[in-house]
Amino acid sequence: MAKTFGAESTADEVLEGIDLSGKRVLVTGVSAGLGVETARSLVAHGATAVGTARDLAKARRALAQAGNPPVDLVEADLASLSSVRKAASELLARAKPFDVIIANAGVMACPQGKTQDGFETQFGTNHLGHFVFVNRLVPLLNPGARIVTLSSAGHQLSDVDLEDPNFEHTPYQAFTAYGRSKTANILYAVALDSRLKGRGVRATSLHPGGIQTELGRHLTPELIEQMRARVSRGASSPAAAFRFKTVPQGSATSVWAGFVALADAVGGRYCEDCHVCEVNDDATSRAGVRSYALDLAHANDLWRKSEELVGERFAL
After folding, report:
1. For the whole model, what pTM was predicted?
2. For tag attachment on the chain, is the N or C end more exposed, with fewer CB atoms within 10 Å?
3. What residues act catalytically?
4. Fold of domain 11-215+246-306
């Protein structure tokens, strides 16, 4: 009988008894939190890991604190398309294939700003940086490979705005911008899955859970309390109210979606707590995934807009 996992499962528990020898994995954002733990757990179970980070010295320190797992580091700043393209070119030149890409890196609820290319910081970093990076690496994917994109329950805060992606005509709100970027992460996985599943490569997205990591460095106590109140409103019972996960628990769904779940079950879907979520458009509920985030036509519209913004077409 297959094991079942949930909100309290850790990455090591999900991977227990699984030998990942011969598997090569790319994890973005291995300088803190989930990226470090995800890479560590995969290496501990036999995988070869490549990790990207904007600050390699910081990544080395973080990995040292995690027991020095052998992770091959590549410099990549997702807020700079020139940096992203340089990193992708470096990996393509090595010509070593990947079995799983975990698009883990991101920023959350930061003050209004722009990436090096002039995009709103959260949309530009969380979505467009990964859009260019991952798309360029598709030729390196082995048959049966998977792409796992970390989104968030924050996608429920806002759909993408294809008419004003950079808040040029809309008053900026940090969590609205975050919600847009996280919806974009899901839509990207939907569009990517539709393009690649014919060759046996699947893409999925997920919410890792609420974890106290550097991702929340811009959160004030007031914002954190607002998050707790919103999530608890949608809970089925007081016992189900919001609780932070540990970093090992937060990493579990990433490795589950990448290596344990059935490919056909997670492909083009959105996951949380090591299971596939159902569509739920109840605005008062935190459960599930909003339908606008899984709409393929909408995803294709975002794909075309993203190509227009980055000035690059991807005929995958």
Report:
1. 0.92
2. N
3. 151, 178, 182
4. Rossmann fold (3.40.50)
